[in-house]
Amino acid sequence: MKKKALIIVGVAYAVAIASLASGNLLHNFFGINGVAEHKVNDDPFTIFEESTPSSSSKPSTSSKPSSSSKASEVASSSAADGLPDRVPNADPSPYAETTLTYTRYNTQTYDPNNEAVDSNGNPITFYTLEVKIKKITDFRTNQVTDANGYPGDNCLNTLFNQVTEVERKYNVDVMGAINGDSSYNNLDHRLGYVLRNGQLLRSQYRTGVDSVFEDLVLWNDGTMSVYTEPGFTGTRRNASIPTYSTDYLTRNKAWQVWTFGPTLIDNGTIVVNDDEDVASPHQSGNQRTAIGYVGPYHYIFFVSQGRSRPDKTDGFSLQEVATKLLARGCTLAYNLDGGDSSTLYAIWDNSTKKFPSKTSPRRIGDMIYVVDA
């Protein structure tokens, strides 16, 4: 009787585990390599807009809150991390529509500052997408997932294929796109927060002293800032850079988070050294992808050519990328995944612009894209 009971319990246990696995609920507990993962929402843009005040309308000023309601507000903002809630930008987007301006720079064709040459005097072509958005949900990211909707370090697709997929899935036209931070690649070495389109996908922070462990956040009010995760024990590039938990980020309506780095520009000042680089065998000159912040709802996407491209140039150092973004009005800029991951797509002047021009660039895990939805 006892043996029979054990068999029944064993079978029930096996069925329960199989059920969990088939529903991918185990992701939420064990994830990939022991890191908890969460399924990507099917339509995060509608969900976020429904739960967030519209960026196109200012807060109501019809009646002032009483002192008791103010006290309640402050009390409700207290959390386990002990941080007061941030004061969001109250101004709506100044842009009536979302726009994108594509520019290609090359010393042989157009370069007003004669600035794009490598250490041997060879021309380096680079591209910028100047983006102005009318609402925060026009600034989107895409995370490649498995068949069940979970991201992972083996979930990869080319940026061009990702563009086609999101256009079909959300019935939108993508105006422009660049690669992101490859946050799920090399997961044994790269942990860190992942928050995309308002949804927290990974909450395990990194630990270490490397200043590349500064993250970039885009808030729901169109502003950007950098912060460190709780495991960072090094010296900040700027002493005022805060440490945020995922609770703080979600509570304060973070819209996107990137965890590559390093920070290139902070408070209008270049903060990378002339010899600084990411961990790569190709130091200094390289293909680059970066994102710059001009002001609320106004950004610059940057992609450049470099090693292993047909032009055979060295490519840019991080400091050179920072210099170019500073010259274009960015007060904050952040390095994203570069090398062969650097990819750009844009619709401009009634034609499709692609870098690299070959039809099958490297398969990557995520992209940043812009729509006018």
Can you describe this structure?
It is globular and about 55 Å long. The longest helix has 21 residues, at 2-22. It is an alpha+beta fold. It has helices at 2-22, 44-51, 67-77, 159-170, 246-251, 318-327, and strands spanning 99-105, 126-132, 139-143, 174-179, 194-196, 199-202, 214-219, 224-228, 254-258, 263-266, 269-270, 288-295, 298-304, 332-335, 344-348, 351-355, 366-371. The protein folds into two domains: 1-30; 39-53 and 78-371, no CATH class. It has six helices and 17 strands. It has a seven-stranded antiparallel beta sheet, with helices on one face. Strands 3-17-4-15-16 form a five-stranded antiparallel beta sheet, covered by helices on one side. The protein has a three-stranded antiparallel beta sheet with strand order 8-7-9.
